[in-house]
Amino acid sequence: MAKWRQDERGFTMLELMAGVVVTLMVVAAGFTALTGTQKAATVNDQTTQMQQNVRLAMELISRDVKMAGFGMTGAVGACPNAINPQDNNTVGADTGPDSVSLGVPITSNVAPTWTLAAPGATGPFATITLQPGAVAAMIAGGLAVNDTLSISGVVSANVSAIDSAADQLTLTSSVGAPAIFTTGTQVYWLQCITYSIGTTTAACAGTAPCLLRGGVPIADGIEDLQLTYTCDGCTGGVPDDVVDDQNGSNTFDTADFISNSTWATAPMTPDTIRLVQISVVARQTRADEGFGEGRGRAVGTPAPIVVADHNPSNDAGFDLATYQQVRRRVLTRTVETRNLGL
Question: Rounded to the nearest 5°, which phi and psi values hold at 159?
Fold first, then answer.
């Protein structure tokens, strides 16, 4: 009987403590692995979003640079020229993002295109009729009297009267004979669009910084936009559809891109621009909570990212520790202007 009781005895205190320690170690290891996996998933998600944002920003800007000037025969809104550079500092190194205003054609985003339904046969005519519902859609998008339209990029005129019920627009000037535009001819609404960087939550609808297109936030996490331009005919020669050799190297290189200029004095005027180099810097919209590469900086780059002539360390209020809390990605593309010059 005594032997039976001895076999039924419980764990000793030492055995119990050893078991608890082993259990805690297993739980801690599992928790660490789970936390690491969760943070890695968060990092991957934020990196993916950041890359998507920088690609979206680049695609939108590149598209509008390519189309800038299409159909323009005069000023469009606040854009006197197809491309209107706005360098952050025209006399030296930038201390913030650049911006640019572009005169671009806008087409319908609710139908394949805005097209002529009854073109007016042979000119002259000053009233055009669009497909059903087109004028109402344009009004909803902000169309107003004095806005500029272009018929197929050939004829441009301002709007003097709008009749949404009849889907008709009256132009300030008549389209003269023998112009003939068939039914289905595309009609473009020309607008002056400004790209800039929003730095406040109010401008960015809660998430700053962001890319603004016409004052509307379109891409989160975009903190820098730098634009440089090549010129044709600005160094004493005549425009010949060949980029000016700014540094006399007899080769096309990065030194041929101009950063510091108002583009307001001949011969350096916007119509001489041939290439636009666009650099976009995107950042994470939030920090990695301590699980970042170099505390949020890209591996191997302890210094701030310098793009064109903008070094963020020269910006007012720059703090390196704060700057390094998030990752960044840079995307650069050179775009040829299609509707300027020769």
Answer: -90, 130
| Tens digits of residue pLDDT in 111-148 | 446 888 875 556 688 899 998 999 998 998 899 999 99
Per-residue pLDDT reduced to its tens digit, 41-83: 555 677 888 999 999 999 999 999 999 999 999 999 999 999 9
How many Å apart are CA 142 and CA 130, to the nearest integer? 17
| Secondary structure of residue 50 in the 3-state scheme | helix
Q: Which residues lie closer than 8 Å to 8 by C-beta, 6 or more apart?
A: none
Query: How far, in Å, CA of 159 to CA of 334, rounded?
Result: 35
Helix-then-strand count for the chain, H and E: 4, 13
Q: To which H or E segment does residue 150 belong?
A: strand 148-151
**How far is Cα 342 from Cα 330, in angstroms, rounded to an integer?**
32
- Tokens representing 78 are 């606040």
Residue 334, class by beta-carbon neighbours within 10 Å (0-12 exposed, 13-18 middle, 19+ buried)?
Answer: middle
Q: Are 207 and 138 in contact (CB under 8 A)?
A: no
Reported as type and span, the H/E element at residue 135 is: helix 134-140
